[in-house]
Here is the input.
Amino acid sequence: MARVAGRIVCLLLLAAAPLAARAETWPSRPVHIVLPFPPGGPSDLLVRGIAQTLSEQVKQPVIVDNRGGGSGMIGNDSVAKAAPDGYTLGLPSAGSMAIAPNLLKPPYDRDRDLKILTIAARVPEVMVLNPKKLAARSLAEVIAFAKAHPGQITFGSTGNGSPVHLVLERMKQLAGIDILHVPYKGAVMSLQDILAGQIDMIAADAPGILPHLQSGALLALAQTDTVRLAALPDVPTFAEAGLPGVEMVNWYAVIAPSGIPAPLADQIHAALVETLKNPGLNQKLGALGLKLISTSSEEATAFVQSETRKWGDVARAADVHLD
Here is the structure.
């Protein structure tokens, strides 16, 4: 009997050994980060900066996998269904993690199927206009024009229910104005149309519009953080521009499949924190208006749940629906 019990113990130890080895040696092959957006947008700058720095740190390739569509949920779903072995991570934004769950049913259960490892970045939205298309030169002038000409100003967003869309709806609620919302399927397309003069205004992550502000093609009116961006020190916050209450900052989180073993999740979290605190990466992305941060998994989970309630309140008040 003792001999049988001993064999069972040995077999259990041998079965557990590969799992332990995988956790100890991570990563031993390329790591994939799923970005649930098309290539070319502002989020690409963030994920590729993180991927390059993480790759240099862990001595393995870190590959960006763009999987846009479905309000970000297609990419998140691919992470939820991936093997929980630490080789598939995701970098979703507030839209798919905190807004979309209020408006439709994802093909996965966020709280059951995904593990949020850390919040990785805060990205204020910047509201801009095409100065050749709209004569206003300040937020106050835009509001005055909108009150005098209801529905005549056109505003492009990255899609129904996106953070950019809710920034517009919040501004409309607080200012008591009517602006025509024009949803696009990503930041690149809305930026192309405002530069071409097809629409009057957009709000966007700072990295995508900085070159166009510097060239004078676009004019910044206000930014949605509570403090001014170091990259845009002359652009006021909404509160400073006379409309407090539009403090709605986009953010990005790093996620993994929920079945990932705790020791492996801790190991990946430690590597991510080191990457997100890298001085060179912070300087590079900070100059573009991206604020890198890091949190514990527990803090990140509580934050996402809080954001879900907040953005849901705004969406319901504005009667926002996803197509």
Summary: The domain at 125-223 is CATH 3.40.190.10 (D-Maltodextrin-Binding Protein; domain 2). Residues 159 and 231 are 26 Å apart (CA to CA). Confidence is low (pLDDT under 50) at residues 8-23.
